[in-house]
Write a structure and sequence with these properties.
Layout: H1 2-20, E1 24-26, H2 29-32, E2 43-49, H3 54-70, E3 75-81, H4 88-98, E4 104-108, H5 117-120, E5 130-134, E6 139-142, H6 148-156
Parallel strand pairs: 1-4, 2-3, 3-4
Antiparallel strand pairs: 2-5, 5-6
């Protein structure tokens, strides 16, 4: 029985460690901020969302489809989780698996959102979902839920 418990312990540790290494976690906005200001030839679509946000979950298939259709066109899609609480990375990993998400997920765990929301966009009230689309020459911010065609049309303005 001791061997079985020890085996279970090592399997559990390996399982949770693999989840914890899956996501970049930023607990300070200043570490994350560079992702909002890349000056390369890519177009960035950065979506702020959470697993508990119904409109965020509803629009996730649009971001999945956008990834599938534009992954080879210098478009980078970053899904920035605003989730908080216990077992954060495991919950997000489960969500990623259940929703077949291929885009990169980043966890922004800086609780002082009042100090950094305006740095994302002065138009942002802090509500989610929210999406920033930018290139080195253009920037658009949206505080709303997207259907795929609407999201694609906004992205195409940058191509």
């Amino acid at each position: 029985m001791k061997k079985l418990n020890l085996l279970f312990f090592f399997v559990f540790i390996n399982f949770t460690t693999s989840f914890s290494q899956e996501f970049e976690v930023y607990d300070d906005f200043t570490e994350f901020e560079f992702l909002l200001n890349q000056q390369d030839n890519k177009i960035y679509v950065i979506n702020f969302w959470a697993t508990w946000c119904r409109p965020c979950v509803k629009e996730m298939p649009a971001f999945n489809q956008l990834y599938e259709n534009f992954q080879d066109k210098d478009v980078e899609i970053l899904l920035v989780s605003m989730d908080f609480g216990k077992n954060l990375q495991n919950r997000i990993a489960s969500f990623k698996s259940n929703h077949n998400i291929k885009s990169k997920i980043i966890i922004l765990d800086d609780p002082d959102s009042n100090s950094w929301i305006d740095k994302v966009s002065s138009d942002w009230s802090g509500a989610i979902p929210a999406t920033l689309i930018y290139s080195k020459s253009k920037r658009e911010f949206f505080e709303r839920e997207f259907e795929y065609k609407e999201l694609e049309n906004e992205l195409k303005k940058f191509l």
